[in-house]
């Protein structure tokens, strides 16, 4: 496993930008900036005509590293140490669980907690706990 | 116009993730690894991301929701469910296991699509399949499952 530096200032600043984005989406469209909720609504069947806007929001996230590359000359390269089989399993679980539980880190963890939603608090504590337990098992037991 | 604005808002979201270091799953996994605290390998950065995001959103939502309606019209779509049912525990429990396996949740996975190579693409395709599966199951008429489709 790769060691990473503790980056309190950059992380607080980045977090504030994520929050600003959530506030702007609420102001502009009246929608919760939940990435899993926006993503699943890109898949058929469609219940409204907001497809283009949702796709644009996700594309904005996708191109962000390229904008960083253009501005700073270097793009941050993610360290992915998980093998292909486990990555696919992880993707299935993340996709299924986020839709089954109506939200992910952004929808429940940021927007929901900011709205003081008890459901989002339950969801956030639950996924933090199972994620920490999973990392403990994969790194320290198996 | 609305679509362009949503692209820009998504871009701010993605820049936030990248600046925060959350586009790197290693950083996420090192946060989730509480057993690494004694050895100094724990990276508390993710807690600062959440703190920064919630501080801005907590205040910002209150200001925005005083307005009569969103800038581009329509109404504010706020989740109305308050019930603590099995789904609100089971879904996040499953999500957390996947998050802990790879260090990717949906937003960071999208930022890794351009820089993370085929691994990120594998994850995203699987994630979309999992989302479709959950929605299919949620919308399936069955006495065993909650009848209200949320997703």
Automatic annotation (TrEMBL), chain A:
Membrane topology of this protein: Multi-pass membrane protein
Q: What is its main location?
A: membrane
Could you confirm whether the keyword Transcription regulation appears in this record? no
Q: Where in the cell is it found?
A: Cell inner membrane
Transmembrane ranges? 51-71, 83-101, 121-138
GO cellular component annotations of the record: plasma membrane
Record has Transport as a keyword:
yes
Which keywords does this chain's UniProt record carry? Cell inner membrane, Cell membrane, Membrane, Transmembrane, Transmembrane helix, Transport
Name of the featured protein: Uncharacterized protein
Q: Which domain of life is it from?
A: Bacteria
Native organism is: Humitalea rosea
Sequence similarity: Belongs to the TsuA/YedE (TC 9.B.102) family.
Alphabetical list of PANTHER family matching this protein: INNER MEMBRANE PROTEIN YEDE (PTHR30574), SULPHUR TRANSPORT DOMAIN-CONTAINING PROTEIN (PTHR30574:SF1)
Automatic annotation (TrEMBL), chain B:
Statement: the UniProt record of this protein carries the keyword Transmembrane helix: yes
Q: Which UniProt keywords apply?
A: Membrane, Transmembrane, Transmembrane helix
Against InterPro entries, the record matches this protein to:
DUF6691
| Any Pfam family matching the protein | DUF6691
Membrane spanning stretches: 44-65, 86-104, 110-130
At the top level of its lineage, which domain of life is listed?
A: Bacteria
Protein name per Swiss-Prot or TrEMBL: Sulphur transport domain-containing protein
Q: What is the lineage of its organism?
A: Bacteria, Pseudomonadati, Pseudomonadota, Alphaproteobacteria, Acetobacterales
């Amino acid at each position: 496993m790769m060691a990473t530096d503790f980056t309190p200032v950059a992380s607080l600043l980045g977090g504030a930008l994520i929050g600003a984005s959530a506030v702007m989406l609420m102001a502009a469209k009246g929608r919760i900036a939940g990435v899993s909720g926006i993503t699943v609504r890109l898949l058929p069947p469609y219940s409204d005509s907001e497809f283009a806007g949702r796709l644009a929001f996700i594309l904005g996230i996708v191109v962000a590293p390229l904008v960083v590359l253009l501005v700073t000359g270097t793009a941050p390269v993610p360290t992915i140490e998980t093998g292909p089989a486990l990555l696919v399993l992880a993707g299935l679980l993340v996709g299924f669980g986020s839709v089954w539980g109506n939200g992910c880190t952004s929808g429940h963890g940021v927007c929901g907690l900011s709205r003081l939603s008890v459901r989002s608090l339950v969801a956030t504590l639950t996924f933090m706990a199972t994620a920490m337990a999973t990392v403990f098992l994969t790194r320290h037991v198996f | 116009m609305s679509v362009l604005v949503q692209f820009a808002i998504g871009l701010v979201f993605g820049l936030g993730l990248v600046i925060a270091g959350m586009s790197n799953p290693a950083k996420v996994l090192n946060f989730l690894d509480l057993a690494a605290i004694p050895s100094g390998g724990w990276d508390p950065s993710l807690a600062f991301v959440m703190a920064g995001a919630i501080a801005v959103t907590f205040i910002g939502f209150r200001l925005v929701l005083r307005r009569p309606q969103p800038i581009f019209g329509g109404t504010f779509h706020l989740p109305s469910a308050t019930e603590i049912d099995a789904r609100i525990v089971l879904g996040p429990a499953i999500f957390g296991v996947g998050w802990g396996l790879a260090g990717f949740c949906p937003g960071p996975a999208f930022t890794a699509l351009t820089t993370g190579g085929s691994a990120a693409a594998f994850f995203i395709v699987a994630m979309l399949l999992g989302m479709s599966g959950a929605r299919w199951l949620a919308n399936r008429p069955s006495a065993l499952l909650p009848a209200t489709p949320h997703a």
